[in-house]
Amino acid sequence: MPAPIRLRELIRTIRTARTQAEEREMIQKECAAIRSSFREEDNTYRCRNVAKLLYMHMLGYPAHFGQLECLKLIASQKFTDKRIGYLGAMLLLDERQDVHLLMTNCIKNDLNHSTQYVQGLALCTLGCMGSSEMCRDLAGEVEKLLKTSNSYLRKKAALCAVHVIRKVPELMEMFLPATKNLLSEKNHGVLHTSVVLLTEMCERSPDMLSHFRKLVPQLVRILKNLIMSGYSPEHDVSGISDPFLQVRILRLLRILGKGDDDSSEAMNDILAQVATNTETSKNVGNAILYETVLTIMDIKSESGLRVLAINILGRFLLNNDKNIRYVALTSLLKTVQTDHNAVQRHRSTIVDCLKDLDVSIKRRAMELSFALVNGNNIRGMMKELLYFLDSCDPDFKADCASGIFLAAEKYAPSKRWHIDTIMRVLTTAGSYVRDDSVPNLIQLITNSVEMHAYTVQRLYKALLDDISQQPLVQVASWCIGEYGDLLVSGQCEEEEPIQVSEDEVLDVLEGLLVSNLSTPVTRGYSLTAIMKLSTRFSSVNRIKKVVSIYGSSIDVELQQRAVEYNALFKKYDHMRPALLERMPIMEKTATNGPSEIVQTNGETESTILDTKHLPSITQPASQANDLLDLLGGNDVVPVIQTTVPTKPASAGGELLDLLGDLSLTGGPTPTPAPSVPMSQPPFLLDGLSSQPLFNDIAAGIPPMTAYNKNGLKIEFTFERANPNPNIAVITIHATNSTEADMTDFVFQAAVPKTFQLQLLSPSSNVVPAVNQGSVTQVIRVLNPQKQQLRMRIKLTYTHKGSPVQDLAEVNNFPPQSWQ
């Protein structure tokens, strides 16, 4: 049989192929020749054939039929055969194939070979693809080579030991004595691999971590020698002595110093030296500085050192390299919660990054800018962010608008500024805002009584300019309907009033009803606004005509509104002024809702808790019931009743969705309790004012964790209420282990129909970061049947600018809490 072609010739031939089909044909032809050679047990050219097979494998062609030939090469006595055999084993074999177990004996023999290069090949192969069984069998040989005086073998043995520890963590103790001596080695290769080995052991075992903390002074000494040593051509990279070793040592120091005062104290000085003496003109120096910054931020470092680290990141922001700027912004975003004032010094540089062409840098800069907003800089930062909102890509507008809303709500210097800012966002990016922006702005406007005339005038002007931004149009329609009389009368004091007639206002609203740009929701707002103006304007006949037209609209929602409004004009005209009067000031419900809301059987039932909040009822009972008939009110409890029905209304509240597949019919139907007079407090508050709130019997009920996900942990503690032992009082404690606060936190709960539930107001709507505080809230559950307690909870919050919502079911309540 003729000698097969050499590898170099094969490469040259394959590169001449003009098409993929031609290349495939060449490969198949050569594979056939290699198979024939393998079948004939041709030992002379086995090494050459396996080498060609590995090249084909690198090109993506199947080469699995060469696995056994690799084992034969490994068993050969020639170094050239072993080298190709071990390389083939690393490329073609892994622990999923049983063939690799046949190598164990060969590797063991080669680990004890007299030639260091053969030992090195065996160590490389074991460290690359050794299975847990192989590692167990050969760990003793690896540990023996760790103690040898040969630095070439020691560095390879250290890396092999890392792989062994990853596969079989319980063998870590075996390498402990040998590892201690590795740091005294002068060879940088051995030092580097020993630091990698120490890092792996510390990350995997808390015991090892505490054991190796005494090596911190030695590591500091090695790092200092690297910094202070002169030029060494063997280790120099761009004028810096062995930056790879420096980075590894800094990473190990970060692990050793985290949470330990003594270790952190020992490394403060050297970290300051590295931070001040490292050259920043080359990327190598920036890599070392970045690791230094991460180490300073993770250990218990001095405040001056942390400021120095943040200043380094500030210098990174001025670098021309986009990757360095992105890394700096990401790092500053992580540290802004703990070192807010230090990061504030670089605010102008961060804001400049909003103009960067790179979208990743712009996004990080936007997130960091929102994190820097506070009461002192709100005006300046909002000016920059609104400018960014005007010019940014559509992908950014939703997040930017959401961030501006949150910041304005938290830090607004005045109500006028708050309203102007939100209107500017709606004008610029109204199509991108969240769904809750419209009701939130309406609530803000309603509560700002002195700004009503100014707001309705500004919104009317905005409608004349642009009706494409639907959220803006919806808010404007609502405000014109509520405060149209102020618009027409020209009572605005904040700016020059405009002269506008009733017909002009109605023309604008009618234009919204017929505009192709208007959504069905917007048309609903406009029709309701026109209806409200029937009690504020004198053009009642025109309004009647508009409303009657839409009684036959193809839009069912619009048609229903128009039919009901027509009925108000005809049968219930005497009630129209009272029904369409201005909305009262709204209570803030963005956190967990007002404390007067009693949540019963998973539905939200507005129960008036105190007789002083009862509205004065001026209409006869028959008129109120007529209105209920008009609105389809068979399921609605009339407000003029003197008793509260114990059965909840079938009109579902938001929490009804929480029940999902939670069984509502598991137990026997409870006997209805007698009605309670409205003048008395509801059942959950019954008698609590004169009795101690909690009973000592519940002292033995153990607490429980109801939810633990994405850094948010919800714990329940239990008490018994006096005087009714059927009421369990559950206190929730919400904590946050992430690095950023969780804002707009809302906890909601629902229970099956055999229970009744009440949620009281929470202590806050912000869950502080890194477990620095908690949000508490009290739940009262009435369980007259003494059935096993089950609950479904709904959690909503905003984390790092992104809204989060999650559902969970809690079934593991302690028996003492419901028995």
TrEMBL record:
Keywords: Cytoplasmic vesicle, Golgi apparatus, Membrane, Protein transport, Transport. The keyword Cytoplasm does not apply. Pfam families: Adaptin_N, Alpha_adaptinC2. Its main location: membrane. It is found in: Cytoplasmic vesicle membrane; Endomembrane system; Golgi apparatus. It comes from the Eukaryota. PROSITE patterns: GAE. GO terms for biological process: intracellular protein transport; vesicle-mediated transport. One of its GO terms (cellular component) is AP-1 adaptor complex. PANTHER family: ADAPTIN, ALPHA/GAMMA/EPSILON (PTHR22780). This is AP-1 complex subunit gamma. The lineage of its organism: Eukaryota, Metazoa, Chordata, Craniata, Vertebrata.
